[in-house]
């Protein structure tokens, strides 16, 4: 056996791809930050950023060992030993074979996958999550869910001569996932569904408008995700070669196909396409092609993208029929998109690339069955474990923000208004009417009616918040609803073009 020699070109490509994948998490922060209401934007973005910090530290201490260690020779986990990775400087990567890149380059590349996976989950629970509790959740979830699942899918074992030890269960069963359709997207989508169930619906869901506050931020985030995804998919070849080029091309055409599929669905269903739909379609295409990007031909990638765009556009509306509040469509895009992409390998996979033909190439159902196994196992494990973790956090330190957070801003504003009102009266001015406009109808009911509008989620609110109700009853101020798009308080975070500029100038 010839000795493997370090390749500077492959190493440079893997390190550059790692940086591209890291860029995806800030891109996701912009994408999610633009989709929520203005008051939640910074919290939403910080949920992605804190994930970088938490996961990076845990990965170095023990995460890489659980995911890619081979000492335990187990199909379910690598090893539970601490690492530090300090002894890996001069080692070459060994994952089902020796690669001409440093082990540390492989470790840092896989770290970026571990970072973005829990960050994806945050979109399902936007607008109602305690920041500290989220950080705790991330630490627990990656430890008991992501690290083991990464081992099942991505660990092809330590190869010495003809002997391979420590391969993951799904990898050893022949389940194909080139860049993370199961380990990342199905994993995150199932977890997002579980957390949405645990935390419950947002106050005012389906009653108050909850439109994205900044579509330019959404487009910026989607663009950064699209750019970084080339590192995500093509970088998974771990070499600057033809497989990387194929993954690169397939990523591009699948994403383009999904954009077309999503906006066509909107056109036929709603009468017109939307900017948010185009951005979401791009992400859906990126998700769907991720597991299949090195296993299908470019024409098939375009078809997979088109199917994913249509399927995900229809799937995001299921939350209204089934009654779960998936705030930013994580289930519809990542879970459904990941399932489409993973199963698509069973139809479009070709032996010219994969060594095993899918249904459309005359290969029968063998490959499709293996893909279904991977989808079902990861989805079921992630959903159940996330339910347990989310429930325990909610019952101990609390996971969902208190209802008064919806009212704090108005309470603070009220104090300033009353002070100004009294000051002007003392100066001899007549003050006739004060109106506070809000875009949350549930908060308005609480402010107007106090305890009469309290429910099981609001009855615990401190009496001080009904200071507002008292002032309303005295006729000193009125609270009225206005559409989110007309909120003057938010105008600096909206594009000031055309009618919007004329409205607020």
Describe what you observe in this structure.
There is one protein chain. The chain is mainly alpha-helical and 505 residues long. It folds into 2 domains: 8-396, Ammonium transporter fold (Orthogonal Bundle), CATH 1.10.3430.10; 405-504, no CATH class. The chain has a two-stranded antiparallel ribbon with strand order 1-2. A hairpin with a 3-residue loop joins strand 1 (92-94) and strand 2. Helix 2 (41-68) packs parallel to helix 4 (131-154) and helix 4 packs antiparallel against helix 13. The model is unreliable at 406-414 and 458-465 (pLDDT under 50). The protein contains 17 helices and 6 strands. It has helices spanning 8-35, 41-68, 103-121, 131-154, 169-172, 181-199, 215-234, 242-270, 275-289, 298-315, 318-322, 330-348, 366-396, 405-426, 441-449, 467-473, 498-504; strands at 92-94, 98-102, 158-160, 163-165, 435-438, 478-481. The chain is 60% helix and 4% strand.
